[in-house]
UniProtKB/TrEMBL annotation:
<feature type="region of interest" description="Disordered">
    <location>
        <begin position="62"/>
        <end position="81"/>
    </location>
</feature>
<protein>
    <submittedName>
        <fullName>Uncharacterized protein</fullName>
    </submittedName>
</protein>
């Protein structure tokens, strides 16, 4: 993804929101302890296996306190705009 391209940022945002439960990515408080368990821009990186894919690290999840990686991968059209 090219984060300087408005189109690709929109694609990333759609994929991001489509992959996650809102409770895993949006804080319900400004408390520092709560915020420490939510992803930030620092948790987004290129996949080491596929440079066209992006990895999002979720520091903590409802069912998995140790967190999990969400892999956002490109798909062929028409699924992937």
């Amino acid at each position: 993804l090219d984060f300087t391209s408005p189109h690709e940022v929109a694609v990333f945002a759609a994929a991001f929101w489509g992959q996650c439960r809102l409770g895993e990515i949006l804080p319900n408080s400004a408390n520092a302890t709560v915020l420490a368990h939510k992803p930030t821009r620092a948790h987004v990186s290129r996949s080491h296996r596929n440079k066209r894919s992006t990895t999002l690290r979720l520091p903590r999840m409802k069912t998995k306190k140790s967190g999990e990686d969400v892999l956002l991968v490109p798909q062929k059209p028409p699924v992937d705009p």
